[in-house]
Amino acid sequence: MIAAAGLLVGIVAGVLLHPEVPVFLQPYLPIAVVAALDAVFGGVRAVLDGIFDERVFVVSFLSNAVVAALIVYLGDQLGVGSQLSTGVVVVLGVRIFSNAAAIRRHLFKA
What we know:
Blueprint: H1 2-17, H2 29-49, H3 54-78, H4 81-108
Helix pairs in contact: 2-3, 2-4, 3-4
């Protein structure tokens, strides 16, 4: 419940305050958002499976975002940033949809 309240507060604050992301961080923001979504969907799935652990969730949330950003940064340094960004989004997208399917099966028994 606290996580949902925090998410709601963050969304409202973002909509009302319109924070500006520094130009040098803008290529990494979409990747960080997708990585964070992967952790959130994984957390929801873990709750439904009855195996949720706050520590695992926080570590997953932070490490997903950091590792994804580092991969994209490395790609930028090697001159293949857009290709690695696409790869990260595809991999995390597959994980998000996999978790969404598991959540759907839990909720609707289908």
